[in-house]
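Aim 2 progress. For Antitoxin, the working sequence is reproduced below.
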Amino acid sequence: MTDKQLTLKLNSTTIDKAKAYAQRQQTSISKLLENYLETIMQEEEAPEEVSPLVSQIVGKGNKVADEVDFKKDYRAHLDQKYG
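Predicted structure tokens for this construct:
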């Protein structure tokens, strides 16, 4: 694949920060931008997957049913605690 040139207009502060970041990473702004664009395009094309940790935290199922169960469990807890 051949490289093409692209001209961008960016805020000068953003450019300065990007140059410093690229230098710390020992790469170029062009390569940073290319990698970023490739990443977001791959994420868009890939099926949405949720990590096991996120699944565990969020849980699966019907949100309304989960809220109803929570309310029911909380009421049972209060009844047991206070009679």
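The mean pLDDT is 79. This observation will guide construct design in the next reporting period.
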